[in-house]
Backbone:
C-alpha cells in the first residue's frame, strides 16, 4: 500500500486535488482518510466552550486513532472512519467504512505536524494557495456549511485560522516531497503526481 499525505492550508484546494487523483486512477485503487473526521469529540461541551475550540491546532486531532486506522488498513483490514459535525462539535453515530486499497490518501491541514504520522507517509504533498484565495473559500464554506455568519467567520479567521496557519501549517511545507501551487487548478502538477502514483503501482 502506498500511503500519500496531502496537506495545505484551509481552503487551499486539497479536496479538489484528491478528487482529481481519484478520477485519474483506474478502478477501486484509492481509499481516503480525512483528518477532519478525527477531531476530538466535544459534543458534550456547552455552546460557549464549543465556540472557543481551535480546530486549526494539532491538539484538536485524535492522532493515535488516525494512525491506528492507517496501520489497520496497511494490514488489510477495513476501518470505520468517524463522522464529525462542525455544528455540534461532536462525532456522529454513523461511521464510514474504508477498505484497504493500493493507494491510501490521508488528507488534512495539519497532517505534517504530527511526527508519528509523517513517519508512515510514503509521499508527502503540500497544496499551496495564496492567502486571499483561501480566505474567500474559507468564508464561503463557513457561511454555507458550518452555520457561521460573515462577521463570525472573519473573527474566527483572524483569531484562529491565520495565526495557526503561520505557526503550524506553513512551516510544515518544508517536509513535503511535492508542492502543488494553486490547488486543484494546477492540472500539470496533478498530472505529474498521478503519473508518479501510476508508475509506483505499475498501472
Residues:
Amino acid at each position: 500500500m502506498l500511503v500519500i499525505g496531502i496537506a495545505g492550508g484551509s481552503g487551499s484546494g486539497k479536496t479538489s486535488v484528491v478528487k482529481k487523483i481519484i478520477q485519474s486512477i483506474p478502478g477501486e485503487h484509492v481509499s481516503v482518510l480525512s483528518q477532519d473526521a478525527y477531531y476530538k469529540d466535544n459534543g458534550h461541551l456547552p455552546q460557549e466552550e464549543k465556540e472557543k475550540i481551535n480546530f486549526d491546532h494539532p491538539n484538536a486531532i485524535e492522532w493515535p486513532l488516525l494512525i491506528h486506522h492507517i496501520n489497520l488498513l496497511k494490514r488489510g483490514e477495513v476501518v470505520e472512519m468517524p463522522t464529525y459535525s462542525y455544528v455540534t462539535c461532536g462525532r456522529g453515530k454513523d461511521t464510514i467504512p474504508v477498505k484497504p486499497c493500493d493507494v491510501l490518501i490521508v488528507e488534512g491541514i495539519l497532517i505534517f505536524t504530527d511526527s508519528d504520522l509523517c513517519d508512515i507517509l510514503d509521499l508527502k504533498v503540500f497544496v499551496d494557495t495564496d492567502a486571499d484565495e483561501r480566505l474567500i473559500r474559507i468564508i464561503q464554506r463557513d457561511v454555507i456549511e458550518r452555520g457561521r455568519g460573515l462577521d463570525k467567520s472573519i473573527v474566527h479567521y483572524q483569531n484562529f485560522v491565520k495565526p495557526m496557519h503561520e505557526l503550524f501549517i506553513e512551516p510544515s511545507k518544508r517536509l513535503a516531497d511535492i508542492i502543488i501551487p494553486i490547488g486543484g487548478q494546477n492540472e500539470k502538477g496533478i498530472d505529474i503526481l498521478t503519473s508518479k502514483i501510476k508508475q509506483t503501482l505499475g498501472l
Observations:
- The radius of gyration is 17 Å.
- The CA atoms of residues 131 and 138 lie 10 Å apart.
- The mean pLDDT is 88.
- Strands lie at 2-8, 30-34, 79-85, 90-98, 103-107, 123-128, 178-181.
